[in-house]
Amino acid sequence: MYRYIVNRVLLVIPTLVGAAALVFVLMRLIPGDICEVRLSSGGGSVDPRAVALCHAELGLDRPLILQFLDFVWGFFRLDFGTSMWSGKPVAEEIAARLPISLEIAVMATVVAIAIAVPLGTISALKQNSWIDHVVRTTAIAGIATPSFWLGIVAILAVLDISHAVFGTPWMPPIDYVPFWQDPLRNLSMVILPAVTVGYRYAAVTMRMTRSAMLEVLREDYIRTARAKGLLERLIINRHALKNALLPVVTLIGIEFAFLIGGLVVTEQVFNLNGVGRLFVLAVQNQDYTLTQALVMLTVAVFVFANLVVDLLYAWLDPRIRYG
Amino acid sequence: MVDLTPPCASAVDTAAESPRPSREGIIGFCRRQPLGTVGLVLVLVMAVAGLSAEWIAPYNPTSNDFAAMTEPPSWAHLMGTDQFGRDLFSRIVFGARTALIVGFSCAIIGGGAGLVLGVASAYFGGRLDLVLQRVMDVVMAFPLIIMALAVIAIFGSGVYNVIVAITIPLIPRCARVVRSSALAIREVPYIDAARACGFGHTRIILRHMVPNVLAPFLIMLTAFVGQAILAEASLSYLGLGVQEPTAAWGLMLQGGAEEYASTAPWIAIFPGLAIALTVFGFSLFGDALRDALDPKLRDR
User: Fold this and answer.
1) If I label B51, which of A162, A193, B113, B189 is the partner at 20 to 30 A Cα–Cα?
2) For residues B19 and B15, what is the distance between their CA atoms, to the nearest angstrom?
3) What's the confidence (pLDDT) of residue B18?
4) CB contact under 8 A, A152 and B151
5) Would you say B118 and B178 are in contact if contact means Cβ atoms under 8 Å apart?
6) Domains of chain A, CATH where assigned
7) Cβ neighbours of B290 in A, within 8 Å
């Protein structure tokens, strides 16, 4: 177990360094000179001295390898440089927007698990019944529906329903209030985006739960449990579900990182000022320092989510630890 | 000296052909897979719309008609018009073409590159495999849309850049799956037989390895088309994908759709339905294809 953990943790390093190298290379593939692009944005010719000064300021006149080491070292110190567009430190920009995105991500996960695990289990238990077909179709629809469209339709529905019920259309608030200050206001703002993002997440989890459950139900130990005359409820809860949830845990962990991708689009729909929206703004404004910091942050979340999942898996399933 | 190569070659090459699980053709597929048939129909409708957009669309998708702005659906405008008076039905039909181009280009280029890398990685093994796998790990650590956004941040938006941006993250996902199926095939005796016959690497890879990983590869390809269409729609919706005046579904949901959500909901509803139904079609078809091609999963 101890050896497995050490090996698994060490494996994080090459991936992160590789990702950093990839981002570093990508950002240097930008056609033209960042400094020239920045300085000539107002039109007119560029003073070579100003370009040289800008290069020195960004450290672009130093050898590539030193630039790269600086870049990596900056991440360890959580120093991502300053945003080229707002002039504020990147870390500050991200920190201001992280709480809302994190809250939506966590809520979406809760929503997804609460929907997916029971429905996926029922679907597997009643294989090929109408419930199964409905669940499977809903799941595929969840994968196919673009989250931004679902968001627009959800806003539309809330507007229409509130208009019909209260007489005046109601819109969720858009300025973020922390949960402990005004829980109701906070929740009313976060619930729609969370459900919108969570639907896709639930769909993927539902499919995984179903197929894992179907596989487990065919195992010999389930037949043994049935032959012993164990209550069906106990067989399902204690024997089948416990084992079927292993791959589901993996999926939930991996998909959590992908939520960030979903957030990029959903925050745009709901006009929420989160990390996803910051990402879009960074790309639109060609703010390369901000873009590279956000990409690296996403990768780091993904890599660590994977790490946690693998360690959890090893703890839950002894075959992996000793295999 | 007797020349052994020709009979040996034909025998081994025939043996390499995998036994087809079913030869019942399209009718059998439809009967066994009702949901898959629904998917196939959706995909075909979209493909026909995209291929013959000029003949189907009643209006020019990019021409404004300021006498008919935000008109509700009617016989003249089947799905209504947008805030510039453009016919939504025509834009959706032409949008199908954009989606087709992006979806298939990304899936075929990304899938093809993944197939080559995956099979080569499994066949040659050793250091090449190790290096390729680490590189794939790194690329896989970027969520699809994030990678695509990073690529667009560098090269800018537009149809071709969108295709590049979506293709790159698809490659490692394909290579990973193909490699694991190819690894199993590498151990099968007919590969040793082919090697014993003195065949070159290219021939063994193309005639013996590739045909046997085609089933998982095709299933993945249908999934990729759907994913690429969805990713393109998301990027276009963010204003970072296909640009006006090209008709694209994601683009149609941008701007006007939210603004006019309560007064002209058809602007928001129809393009979204088009995206969802198309991706839904590809998913259903892909699922059915998996069941049909992989007999082990048949009674699941």
Assistant:
1) B113
2) 9
3) 46
4) no
5) yes
6) 93-322 (1.10.3720.10)
7) none
